[in-house]
């Protein structure tokens, strides 16, 4: 009997997503630098909205997210009718695959691309196709060369996770123009706000009918625990996604807090400025200790060690010092560690610990 009950094709191929560790046994004051969270947390406006939301717990939320979409439209100068809100940007990325790909279709992602992309492809029964990068940077020609008649979606994050690297707007536009006509380009802008003046691809979305952008409240807005994201795309695509989306996907609390967060751009600005300064400082400090990294455009750096063994030993040493970073073996980068840019004290602790580790003080 049970042999007859089988999950849909692809589901058993899924490797469970590994979240960043948050605790070290025996260390009471560990600093979590493994999930690219904002070290300052949520802004004041968002915290106050969260407190107020307690009065609405018995009410069903609106299904149209009108108020949040309006706030996003005003802040990012986008048509609210082209915006969809979801349970993290993960939900928007998933809705796109559910609506546009299935068994027999292919979904392209790149060599060190975000680990949810192949998971989502398998979830919908499509075939995940991994395309090489060039020295940890997305390679547009490699993606175009990998496209077939079966390609339905291409996921790229720009800036990318876990590499932190970016490709320029012209390259992204060249990718969009070169894709087969039945293929959608998904620009994952989870880290877009960390790049001064970067629109995450919004202008490209506005000028084409085959590009969708996703964004999140989990990173610079400091709301990873609440799970809110959004997408911006051509109206007909947003219409399709809204048909697949659960009507009550976002709670009153999520909606109210996200709206307050969008309106508190001072917190975003403060977080970006701090990240830019401390990221440069940390990268330089690690380089001085013989641990290089590519120039990062996000809120983390990908520290490169001499070997897998050295990266694992460095990870263990950092842990023993209460510093939790992310191993990137699962991303095909076993000799690297991804380190979130924390606050000043966290960055100093990381630099100091790496210095001790490399100096053999361990
Ligand atoms: C590149 C990228 N895209 C999407 C996400 C998912 O973000 P969310 O919390 O909005 O689902 C992450 C989270 O780490 C990410 O790094």
Relevant terms:
PyrdxlP-dep_Trfase, 38% helix, binds pyridoxal-5'-phosphate, Aspartate Aminotransferase, domain 1, aminotransferase, alpha/beta, 7-stranded mixed β-sheet, pyridoxal phosphate, 362 residues, 2 domains, 3-stranded antiparallel β-sheet, HisP_aminotrans, Aspartate Aminotransferase, domain 2
Q: Termini, distance in Å?
A: 57 Å
- Give the strand line-up of the largest sheet: 2-8-7-6-5-3-4
Helical content (DSSP H or I, runs of 4+): 25-40%
* Total number of distinct structural domains: 2
Radius of gyration: 21 Å
The count of β-strands is: 12
Beta percentage is 5-15%
Number of helices: 12
CATH class of the largest domain: Alpha Beta
The class by helix and strand makeup works out as alpha/beta
- What is the mean pLDDT? 96
Largest sheet: 7 strands, mixed
Modified residues (N6-(pyridoxal phosphate)lysine): 219
Cofactor: pyridoxal 5'-phosphate
GO molecular function, one term: pyridoxal phosphate binding
Protein name: Histidinol-phosphate aminotransferase
Question: Care to describe what's here?
Answer:
This protein is α/β, with parallel strands linked by helices and 362 residues long. It folds into 2 domains: 2-41 and 266-358, Aspartate Aminotransferase, domain 1 (Alpha-Beta Complex); 44-263, Aspartate Aminotransferase, domain 2 (3-Layer(aba) Sandwich), CATH 3.40.640. The protein is built from 12 helices and 12 strands. It has helices spanning 44-52, 66-76, 88-100, 116-123, 140-146, 169-178, 202-207, 235-244, 252-262, 265-288, 308-320, 344-358; strands at 31-32, 83-86, 106-110, 127-131, 151-157, 184-188, 211-216, 229-232, 300-304, 323-324, 326-327, 336-340. The protein has a 7-stranded mixed beta sheet, sandwiched between helices. It has a 3-stranded antiparallel beta sheet with strand order 9-12-11, with helices on one face. The relative contact order is 0.17. The model has no long low-confidence stretch (mean pLDDT 96). The structure holds pyridoxal-5'-phosphate. This is Histidinol-phosphate aminotransferase. InterPro entries: Aminotransferase_I/II_large, HisP_aminotrans, HistidinolP_aminotransfase, PyrdxlP-dep_Trfase, PyrdxlP-dep_Trfase_major, PyrdxlP-dep_Trfase_small.
């Amino acid at each position: 009997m049970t042999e007859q009950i089988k999950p849909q094709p692809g589901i058993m191929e899924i490797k469970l997503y590994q979240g960043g560790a948050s605790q070290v046994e025996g260390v009471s004051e560990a600093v979590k630098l493994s999930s690219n969270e904002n070290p300052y947390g949520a802004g004041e406006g968002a915290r106050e909205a969260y407190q107020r939301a307690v009065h609405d717990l018995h009410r069903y939320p609106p299904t149209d997210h009108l108020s949040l979409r309006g706030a996003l439209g005003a802040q990012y100068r986008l048509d609210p009718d082209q915006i969809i809100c979801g349970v993290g940007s993960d939900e928007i990325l998933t809705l796109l695959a559910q609506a546009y790909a299935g068994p027999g279709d292919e979904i392209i992602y790149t060599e060190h691309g975000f680990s949810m992309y192949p998971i989502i492809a398998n979830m919908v029964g499509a075939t995940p196709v991994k395309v090489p990068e060039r020295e940890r940077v997305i390679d547009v020609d490699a993606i175009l060369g990998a496209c077939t008649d079966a390609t339905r979606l291409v996921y790229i994050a720009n800036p990318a996770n876990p590499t932190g690297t970016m490709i320029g707007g012209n390259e992204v536009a060249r990718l969009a123009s070169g894709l087969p006509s039945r293929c959608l380009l998904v620009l994952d802008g989870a880290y877009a706000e960390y790049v001064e003046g970067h629109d995450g691809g919004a202008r490209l979305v506005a000028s084409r009918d085959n590009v969708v952008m996703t964004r999140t409240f989990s990173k610079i807005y400091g709301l990873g625990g609440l799970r809110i994201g959004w997408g911006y795309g051509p109206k007909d695509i947003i219409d399709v996604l809204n048909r697949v989306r659960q009507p009550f996907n976002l709670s009153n609390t999520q909606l109210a807090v996200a709206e307050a967060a969008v309106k508190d751009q001072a917190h975003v600005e403060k977080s970006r400025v701090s990240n830019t300064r401390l990221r440069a400082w940390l990268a330089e400090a690690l380089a001085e200790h013989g641990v290089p990294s590519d120039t990062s455009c996000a809120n983390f750096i990908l520290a490169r060690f001499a070997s897998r063994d050295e990266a694992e030993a460095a990870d263990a040493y950092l842990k023993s010092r209460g510093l939790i970073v992310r191993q990137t073996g699962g991303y095909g980068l076993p000799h690297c560690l991804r380190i979130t840019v924390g606050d000043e004290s966290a960055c100093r602790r990381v630099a100091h610990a790496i210095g001790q580790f490399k100096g053999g003080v361990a």
